[in-house]
GAF domain-containing protein
Amino acid sequence: MVPAPPSPLPRLRSHGLSAPTGDEFRAAVRRAAGPDADAVWVRVCERVGVEPAASLLPVERLEALADALSAEPGRIGTVGIALGVRTRSYRALAARPGGDEDGERSFDPGRRTLEKLLRNRPPSDDRMSEVAGLDLFSPEARSRLDDAARRAADRFGAAIGLVSIVLEDAQYFAGSHGLSGWLAEVQGTPVEWSFCATMVRTREPYVVPDATGDVVQRANPLVENDGVAFYAGVPLVTSRGQVIGSHCIIGAPRDGFGEEDLAVLRQLADEVVALLESTRPAPAP
């Protein structure tokens, strides 16, 4: 008897999130690796025992693929980090007590259009090369950036502080303080839910006093289901002019986060960038 083909993993109604597919993994590798993509993909698939042409895979195999890609150098490694965040977000949300019983997320045409734009925006090769060239994902970086996130949260009396790196398919919390639940487990979110991704485009600070009433963010699943309300962030801009993410704080709704507060947050962000650039490998002679 011929075995039945695998079924797609169900879409999570509460967050509108689908699990990645093997095809999406392969496409991301092609964008990052160029002419070497097929060889990289076959090598990684062989390492984890996945058929390179497979599209529908269980979450465990997707996670194994993401971990194997994360171990690759350069931009391929960032692809693995991002797809790992997407896959683990799906797994963690699907495994919550009560499963996916929160009901369908709100339908907001403007929000859905924005999420499609964020998800499908072509990556900047220069920006992603900058991300790949910095020490963002090592245990040593995690310790330093967690401290930076804690300092920002403490400075403003916020519940959460983050150093968020915006990748192609996800935002990755390279440093965090105050997270709980699935966000603490995954340390990131799909890119289309990212407040921080706004600053990659605008290069300007982004403040949302109360996201529950904000026309852009009120239908964001992080607002509807995960309690994000106040948000203030400033872009992390390297000396080469690339916006790699943001330094931000999150908490209860508040008014009065003005220019003086933004100036302090900018200073803290500059310190984060200086810390990251101090670990940049020296150019070859």
Summary: The chain has a mean pLDDT of 92. The two ends are 63 Å apart (CA to CA). Strands lie at 160-166, 170-177, 188-190, 206-208, 230-237, 243-251.
